[in-house]
Amino acid sequence: MDTVRIKTRDDDEAVRTALSSLKTATGIPVTMYGTLLADNRLQITQWVGLRTPALHNLIIDAGVGVGGRVVSTRRAVGVTDYTRANTISHENDRLIQDEGLHSIVAVPVIVQREIRGVLYVGVHSPVRLGDKVIEEVTMTARTLEQDLAVNSAMRRAEGVRGTLARVGSLSGAEWEQIRSTHSKLRMLANRLEDDDVRKELEVLCDQMVSPVRVKQSTKLSARELDVLSCVALGHTNVEAAEEMGIGAETVKSYLRSVMRKLGAHTRYEAVNAARRIGALP
């Protein structure tokens, strides 16, 4: 059966749609989007209605101009006369004058508490962009945020599906190698006296099975998992006891508890049941 691949708009398309809808809703001729770069600078990556190439792909240093102030304050910023505004810095005045922009409003686009970019509108005449315009830009920014968040979620889902596909394609020998490594790591963790290091190793063991983990209604203790790991390696109760530094009767007690929890009748049924719920690889 073919897998249905769910498609969503990519981020660039989401931005293009936002710019177009914003221009239609406000009647303002210029709309732009600045993408926040890794070094906290902005780059104008998309635009509608610019008359010149002066602002095309412009990189705006941190804190500079309207966009830089938006990023630093995480709030909308508007100026009526850009080159004379005293609330912003003026490193890019010449480029703004080359384009002929006067009034500009900019709003942050925030996804999962992180600024992803800045949405701009601007006009080539000395008119004030009022509260209604700021509200419209803000609403468009919120819609864009939702679209970008959905895209991010879909990419994460695709990554999980890709991981599961890769896991599903492993050969029997590769799976056995993973299982052996998992069991040996648990045994190593069991011998450590440093609690912090042991916990870190146990976390790594959990991560080895997390791609195939399902919701686990049966909770196994760390000691029970250690015993199962020994059984998975083919150890007898005596060998498991020596490996774990406990008595053979204690191993039996753990095994009885595990089998009761998992509804298993034998030690090997318990191992298979633990694998089905994602407790072992």
From TrEMBL:
Transcription as UniProt keyword: yes
Pfam families referenced in this protein's UniProt entry, alphabetically: GAF, GerE
GO BP term (any one): regulation of DNA-templated transcription
InterPro entries assigned to the protein according to its UniProt record, in alphabetical order: GAF, GAF-like_dom_sf, HTH-type_RamA-like, Sig_transdc_resp-reg_C-effctor, Tscrpt_reg_LuxR_C, WH-like_DNA-bd_sf
SMART domains: HTH_LUXR (SM00421)
Superkingdom classification of source: Bacteria
Gene Ontology molecular function, alphabetical: DNA binding
Record keywords, A-Z: DNA-binding, Transcription, Transcription regulation
Record domain HTH luxR-type: where: 213-278
Protein's name according to its UniProt entry: GAF domain-containing protein
Organism for this UniProt entry: Corynebacterium lizhenjunii
Lineage, top ranks: Bacteria, Bacillati, Actinomycetota, Actinomycetes, Mycobacteriales
